[in-house]
Amino acid sequence: MRAVLSMAVALFLAGEITAFAAEEVKDQFAAGSVWNGELRVAGKEEAGKAILTVSERMGESFKGEFLAKSPAGKVVTFQVSGTATNKASGAVIFETEKQGVSQLKMRGKLTNNAVNLVFVGTSPFGGKGGGAIVLTPKL
What we know:
The termini are far apart. The chain has one helix at residues 2-24, and strands spanning 34-41, 48-58, 61-69, 75-84, 90-96, 103-111, 114-122, 128-137. With 139 residues, it is of the alpha+beta class. It contains 1 helix and 8 strands; from the N terminus they run H-E-E-E-E-E-E-E-E. The protein has an 8-stranded antiparallel beta barrel. Helix content is 17%, strand content 53%. Mean pLDDT is 85; it is low at 7-12 and 17-23. The chain has a single domain, classed as Quinohemoprotein amine dehydrogenase alpha subunit, domain 2 (Lipocalin).
């Protein structure tokens, strides 16, 4: 009986610890989350702006909208899908839907409340390129 009671107490405490840990780690890519940041195209000095808005979240998968604004003010909006960690740090991978020949693929990591990404892709005119994006959550 004592062993059963000890096991029950251990399971109860483990459950409490798990529940406490789950409350501490907020899913930063939950539906409705918005990430703002800077977009730098390789070979260009001026930075553009980037905004990622998450509209759906299913486990580690997400869907949303990615807006890119060039330093000259040209704005392009893409629908995106990918995966992102639901922990405090980890991989973030997403890509835009293909529009004609245009598509961007982004790969990076969430650490210290920021996502550092590299991207490669094809422009609407068929030119290939890449660069880097740093996103932070909009509070």
